[in-house]
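Many introductory courses stop at the sequence. We go one step further.
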Amino acid sequence: MRSAAIFDTVSLGNYKARLRSEDAVADGFFARVGNLWKGFLSLWISNVEKEHPEIAYENAINSMVAKYTQLKKATAAIIRRREDITSRLDKAKKDLAQIERDLSAAVQTDQKDLGVVLIQKKQGMAQDVTEMEAELLQANTDAETAKASLMQVQGEINKLKAEKDRMLAKLASAQARVKINEQLDGLSVDAEVKALDNVREHIKTTMAEAKLGDELRENDLDTKLAKLRAASGDATANEEWEKLKTQGAAKTQRTMG
């Protein structure tokens, strides 16, 4: 029985350990899935903000405005505390002044018992006044620090608003320039230049063909024969002319003789 009880105890311990191990694995898995989802969500938000920067600026401004509101409430609480301390200090000083007058009257009327009580009370109230003056000094410092922080946050909000307007204007200008450059790229004259090159090449080819035709005609036998006959005809005509001229001159001489 004892051995069985020990075995049951060990088995139960192993079972609990296995459950803890499985729980740890499950927790690790879900933690990894959660981190992965957060990463995807962060990338998606980042891409949206790049596509719409006005959203990113507006979110940043709204976040700073919310912090400004919280700081404003905290500053108001500090100022209220300073006012409460000032009010209590004023009352304590008045009460201390009254105690001093009462003590002076007790001294004048030689009321020692009353005077001793008033002295103890005066000492306690004087200590309270000293402590409240220190509290008021600290409250004034806290109030000035809070107001300075408040003004600083307000200034940052105004700067961020101005930056938003300025940067969005620059973005709009840059986007317009990109569109203009894209339109200019689309107005390329390469096609027109290529068409003129084709025309020029055609003209040169036609001229070369014409020149080749002339050269071929000059080397043609019929052409050479025609030129030869034309030259021979010119020579025969010249000889005939000279002959007729000589005959004419001789006839004239016979007539005169």
